[in-house]
Queue: 3 jobs
Job 1
Amino acid sequence: RKGGMSHCLAMFALLASTRVGAFSLSTKATGRLGARVSSTGGAAANEVVKFDPTKVRAISFDVTGTIMVHAEPIMKTYADAAVWARLPNPPSEAELKPAFKQAYKESLLASPCFGGREGLSSRQWWTRTVTRALELCETPRRYSRDEFDRFFRRVYQHYGSLEGYAKLEDASAFLEWCAAERADLLLGITSNTPARTMETVLPMKGYHGYFRWFTCSQDVGVEKPGREIFDAAFAQARFWYPDLERGQILHIGDSLESDFCGARAAGFQSLLLDRSGNPRVTQYQDWLDAPDYPGKSQEDIDAGTVKDFHAVRALLEGNAK
């Protein structure tokens, strides 16, 4: 159900869609309460944290699938780039999708956080992943160094440009409302997307000015739903509001495992953004475990699920007076 995001090769990520694009691929996957559940630590003192808009002083946002999406299907971008690069026997979208999903999973499990734990650059991590995806196509593809570099650079440039991503209207409207009407709210990013998303994509899309902290898995070395990434976000948020408490942070994202359950397990409030009606938001990561947290139940998850940011605003407005 989720990441994440938003930083490098969104390409194969689409497959992995782990939110999707390779470079901005976030490690997220949609799941259900009945899916495997593992405990990664609960709220302080095992306290049950419920959504309470009257206590919200800070809002943490996921990126890919939450505030923006890839502008076109990721595999289309890759297939088009293969044709543009004049690769011999260029792979089709249909071939790339299952191949990339497998390659993405393999890479993320073997080298988490887009290589952040090993000190790899995003480009190095994605080069490995894309090479593996081509090998896993129904008809394996092995290209010369020059052929691959020409193809890879085309994709990498795309996801480093304005054309690679699109803002989600409801998210943009919500951020504008926060800036105009709720300047007291401290806004930040907590995402599994690569560091490139924080450093280039958000600024290019005009989003960075809304936020005062930026926490991504590649920098931290731990992906959501791991508690450590939420701990890092909490530490960054407290720089701005030194007396901020965990339960005063509301995390919003589109992944049950990574965002909703991960944040609750770390002692944050959380809302699950249901993007199932948006065909541009695809999630393939089905191997993530949903952390346990005090008070976890299907009823609690249902109560914490919203359709869009208009619903989030309504919840906050109704209790802001």
Job 2
Amino acid sequence: MARNEEKAMSMLNRWLRVQSGEEFKKEERRPYLASQCESLPEAEKWRRQIVTEISKKVSEIQNPGLGEFKIRDLNDEINKLVREKGHWERRIIDLGGPNYLRSSVMLDSNGQEVPGTRGYKYYGAARDLPGVRDLFKKDDKPINKRSRSEMYKCADAAYFGYRDEDDAVLLPLEKAAEDDAVSTAVLEWTERNAGAGKAAADDDDDDGKEPADGFVAHVPVPSAEELEKAVLAQKKRDMLAMYVSPEEEAAQQAAKKRPRDE
């Protein structure tokens, strides 16, 4: 009974395919050259098809039990499909589509292109094949650093600048710069002293002349000697006030006046 139902279902499916035209529809093949495609949707469809094939083959090559020859063939097919995908991506750009090439470039954290992302690449188990493993092996050789004593061997008198004056070009330049600096300093000193002398001469001339505005002092102005005497007398009074009481000072003043009165 189940066999008859299966036959009926298969006949029904065939009849539906005939009605939709899929029974007589031939399988469409991808163009050999991307330049033969003139439609942007078709180009994007073929690119998606190639990406699907690459994904399947990359998943298949992850199995290391396939054997060396099978793995090498799969790796060659993947690289061929990757190149073909690049052709279709460039064709999509020519037809006015998006730029898929920009997103296919692998960048590191610094924004630089990762080395080894162009040209022939190895996927999955192909990276562990004989001869290929050495390509990805990093050189772990320690870097030989020079010791302090070895570095001091190269540090001679010229390194510390003791032989700079031996150069026949440097000394004349230093001599010319020194002469310029000395002449500039002498000129500045001469101008400064000339300005100071002129100002002093103007002050002397002003001392021998009457004020231009006719100012006359109505109060006698003390001289320098009189000022010194006044300051000295004030100091004496201050010292007497510190060490002599008012009564004793009054007695001394009275004793000084008494002989004169007698």
Job 3
Amino acid sequence: MFFKTAYNGYAIEFSPFIENRVAVATAQNFGIIGNGRQYVLEFGPQGVRELLSFDTADGLYDCAWSEENENILVSASGDGSIKVWDLSAPPQMNPLRSFEEHSHEVYAVAWNQTRRDCFLSASWDDTIKLWNLDSRVSLRTFAEHSYCIYAVTWNPAHADVFASASGDNTVKIWDLRQERSTLTMAAHAYEILAADWNKYNDCVLATGSVDKSVKLWDVRMPMQPLNTLVGHTYAVRRVKCSPHQENLVYSCSYDMSMCMWDWTRTDGNPLLKRWDHHTEFAVGMDVSTLVDGLVASTGWDEMAHVWRQDTDPRA
């Protein structure tokens, strides 16, 4: 199933509450200049339809659903703001909130799936900020990276722990109970654009880089990756660990493809499947936690796809 967006797709996220609902963050003119639009789409036997959309003055690079309210959604904006949307509110009430502390583009947002009452934003101003909807100002700022931060991801087992991926070629592990980051990994030789925790082993982290590879790490032994997955021909933009199988990780790339890997396969080819349904950079991707085998992607070709991983995304 697919949906044609008006602007270039940047991120797609399944609702954690409603199994046939996705949010798609988009930006006009490839996110360089122009407006943004946050879509909420629903899909079923008749295909994909637009439930709601919210327009913004600047492009949107990422989005995240609230883990405590099915109607709340946050968007990362190119003007440095974070927009908060309430699907149940009348149009004139949205955005519900606009947080405006970052001085450059916000490139990633991540809601805490364990504590559920807070979320992170990561920016090209080299900082990460912690927020909750009850406070009009950020709760904390994390400022140790020396270049743009492209991704943040909460640990699924530890409510205070998260990882960040940066253009300074490092991944940092943070604990809210500590004043500074607890680990810095020189994970790739080039910019790191993506990171995600394994959902079954809280010490395993996947990273994706401009070096075209996906790497798996045990943060207790950070000197050497558990595996390096090679198969993309351009930068890896996102990685996602399966919520249903410990050994599966997904990636999407500027080579316009999306891949599924068995990262535990160290002998033989770990690449299980490659999808090439996008005709431009594939930069957004998600895996449903509610429906095993349901995946989604979006890209600069202004397309959003939702499909079961054993079928054709174009169908």
